[in-house]
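Hi,

Apologies if this is the wrong queue. I'm a grad student, and the batch job for Trk family potassium uptake protein from Luoshenia tenuis produced an output file that my downstream script rejects. I'm not sure whether the problem is my script or the file. Here is the sequence I used:
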Amino acid sequence: MRPAQILALGFMGIILAGTLLLMLPISSSTGLGIGAVNALFTSTSAVCVTGLTVIEVGRDLSLFGQIVLLALIQIGGLGFMTMATTIFLLLGKRITLRERLVMQEALGEFRLTGLVRLTRNILIMTVCIELCGALLLSTRFVPIYGWAKGLYYGVFHSISAFCNAGFDLVVESESIIAFQNDVVVNFTIMGLIILGGIGFSVIYDIVKKRKFKRFSLHTKVVLCVTVFLILFGAVAFFALEIDNPKTLGDPDMPWYSKGMGALFQSVTVRTAGFNTISQDHLSLSSKILSMLLMFIGASPASTGGGVKTTTFAVVMLLVYNTIAGKPNLNLFKRRLSPGIAQRALSIIVISIAIVLISAMGMSLVEPTSIPSESLMYEVFSAFGTVGLSTGITADLHVVSKFILIITMFFGRVGPLTLTLALALRQSHNKSAAYKYPEDRLMVG
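Support response: The file is valid. Your script probably expects a header line. Output copied below for reference.
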């Protein structure tokens, strides 16, 4: 099998194992189990680090079930090949060329050299970042829930935030709305989301080189696009929701919380799934903006989904060059190959097709009482592995739940990777042996 096929089947295997564990009576707080469909949906959402859920995690899962869920989130966030490589290293097993090829595909690297070292650094960075996040969050959770529960909440939400999963244990409110005025909780979670969403190679590049001009082209593009999307989204959400009394226009909400809420929405909506304002009460304009940011998602080789920031950047550059009549794709004094533009366009087209087909499928089985924008919001959230919802997930038809399961899987594994995994082997020699005569076709 090719690396793309191994990655796809690896994620399927982890999802199946998680489903079986979550189906056990010991995973349920009632001891009766949560059901096969709910277990499959929850396992897929965790491994694909989405956060959509048909159960109340803090209420319906036992401590064992929550730990299983947390393990699935961590494996899904890091990638199963990273975890497998870790086990191989602990056992002293030699990493073969075949395994290195799969690691290269999973991490989005261009070279085979240094992959084992990069994997080791990824694990060290992950532990350090999640530990710092857990300690900061615990300073706010311990005074409320006590030492044991507060520390546990800190660890759980730190891992969930860094892996961009969006699962939470707060039963008292929808997501972390109860902490919408808490500066420490908001900025800690936002920091973890951003670090998890920019990708491990970018973090490693920043730590190693430290100066922007020395960064790789990939790191420069990821940082610039990420900062732009966060700032643009924050300003746009603030302008769209400041007059909405059910969200940022709440007269009882302090002004600093309004700005912090807009910033948090801009950060979380791209792939995380936590929310400090009710998604159901957002204006239609804000929901459309949210769906656009969900579709773009995080960066390559990160814990997030979507079409990725670099894909968005390449397509926007391609559009600009077409309008301006420029022949070459140039970024930071570097020229991109035409193959990158073709790959970016393919990802966009495949992703749009997945979202539209999923939305049409759900609209056929759901009653007309559910607004169309709520169904679209659910589909975009699933594809972008975001996890935000207007509150309809648990009430969806079983067919819609399976559609969302497939959409989450596509969004996490990657449209192009999964397409390549399902494609038949092609003979490169045969395709390169001849070329047809060139002709013209009118477009537009």
